[in-house]
Amino acid sequence: MNAEQLQLIAQSAWQALPTLLAAAPITLGYALASMVLGLPLALLVALLRLSPVTPLRFLSSLYVSFIRGTPLLVQIFVIYYGLPSFGVTLSPLLGGVLALTLNAAAYLSETMRASILSVPRGQREAALSLGLTPRQTMRLVVLPQAARVALPSLSNTLIGLVKDTSLVSVITVVELLRSAQLVIARTFEPFGPYLAAALIYWLISSVLELAQRRLEARLSRQG
């Protein structure tokens, strides 16, 4: 690769940068929306997997197994292109968020379930002996401790979601990767825009990782 080629790549990356930066909030918004919506669903699934009711445990386990055992790209296709066969048509925005939410919830539920189980049984028994109901024990004693244990994995899931948003480009969502593809369609120079998009993904992930470390350090001082 000579100096002229390097200059061409740098120039194409620089020219693509405004378009890509404008799409970056869309990528981050998809990740945050999927995380916010996925957390309560993940908690519900985790509690169902710990339920003494066998059908509830089976159904929640089946959901987690199916989501974790199939590619996210296939899940996006099923939701966006498959649901219209049953009369359910979703916009690219809703279809993408729904697919990412369902996928994230399955993985987050395993993190939450393990975190809940990590809380010593003696603390639950002590809370119950003090007159707390099982629901109060879970809400006031178990979940706060489980949340601290789960924090690193939850943060890693959010970082993973930022990268997974690139897959919704297949349903015409104009996020970061799709924006790079549109730039390439105009300039016919792929390396620069793709490299610029990769750097933006890396920058977003690095900022989120830094925020995760600071939050963990603050929680450690409080603990």
From TrEMBL:
Q: How does it sit in the membrane?
A: Multi-pass membrane protein
* One Gene Ontology term, aspect cellular component: ATP-binding cassette (ABC) transporter complex
Task: Tell me the superkingdom of the source.
Answer: Bacteria
Matching entries from Gene3D superfamilies are given as:
MetI-like (1.10.3720.10)
Places the protein is found: Cell membrane
Species per Swiss-Prot/TrEMBL record: Deinococcus hopiensis KR-140
Q: Which GO terms describe its molecular function?
A: transmembrane transporter activity
UniProt name for this protein: Amino acid ABC transporter membrane protein, PAAT family
Q: Which residues cross the membrane?
A: 32-50, 62-83, 89-108
Any Gene Ontology biological process:
amino acid transport
Q: Where is the ABC transmembrane type-1 domain?
A: 24-212
Task: Give the primary localization class.
Answer: membrane
The record ties this protein, via InterPro entries, to: AA_ABC_transptr_permease_3TM, ArtM/GltK/GlnP/TcyL/YhdX-like, MetI-like, MetI-like_sf
What family does the Swiss-Prot or TrEMBL record give for this protein? Belongs to the binding-protein-dependent transport system permease family.
Keywords, A to Z, come to:
Amino-acid transport, Cell membrane, Membrane, Transmembrane, Transmembrane helix, Transport
Entry's NCBIfam families? Answer: HEQRo_perm_3TM
